[in-house]
Amino acid sequence: MDKELALYLDELKSLVKKRGLKHSHQREQILTVLFHAKKHLTPEEIYQEVKKINSTIGLATIYRTLAFLEKEEMVSSISFGSEGKKYELNRGEHHDHMICLKCGKIIEFFNEELERLQEEIAKKQDFKLITHQMNMYGICKECQNQG
Amino acid sequence: MDKELALYLDELKSLVKKRGLKHSHQREQILTVLFHAKKHLTPEEIYQEVKKINSTIGLATIYRTLAFLEKEEMVSSISFGSEGKKYELNRGEHHDHMICLKCGKIIEFFNEELERLQEEIAKKQDFKLITHQMNMYGICKECQNQG
DNA sequence: TTATGTGCAAACTCTTTGCATTACC
DNA sequence: GGTAATGCAAAGAGTTTGCACATAA
Fold first, then answer.
1. What is the pTM of this model?
2. What value does the mean pLDDT of chain A take?
3. Closest residue by Cα to the C1' atom of nucleotide D14?
């Protein structure tokens, strides 16, 4: 079963405390939006979404919060082509992405062998691997069927 | 032996002709700078470099030319973190990147098995793979030795 | 001659920052 | 009460666009 929202909010709370910062509703609201998101969101999209529950939130808060959450590794971002960054909640397990060049859909996947292979490649070059991002670009099943 | 500059310039010429466009020194100058580059360059860096041989070139021309060359697949771009796009000449063979988070160096590599594995992963999801980008982030050999 | 390419400057988009105010602890 | 967080507006950075002029075919 997937982690519940409450757990992420708790994580945020202890993170904030650990850093000697103060709690804020805005950060919780942004995290909540990311939790419910069905896809990767741009800062602007997150802004619009949070506005529905808090009409006075400012875009700057979105940016500040995303920067904070990304630094603390609670969210991660992906960007491709000429589009800006898109954010997703870090749900623990690492995964990679397939990006449909027609509809923009992002499909997540995880492949054990791919992870292993990367370690191997890094080792060969004496490169200390911290993280990676594999983006596969192409046409998704649905778009192929549409011609 | 690597392809010579003259061959890239010829390629550019025939490409321009094929598209019914006109030859220009600026495009050749930009391509030449990319050819001699030892690393991935930002538009601004390319601008500064071309300026050394053509002091009147405009930044807009750099952007327009890069967009053209990328669309025609003579150059490709990579972007990571909060930094903007960086460009490199497409020297034919596909490759992936290791990016040092300390010094920013970009190490290129090619791995046969990685290519094969991706095809396999894509096929599993009925995803029609067109291209991919594997970015490995970590610390390069030199930076590790510096502590 | 005619359409494309260029340089310049203005416009735009996305993101960050300064500051007064608000909210948390 | 003191410090961090926020909202707003202004500033920045990077990129694109409109236009008059230059240039290739």
1. 0.85
2. 93
3. B84
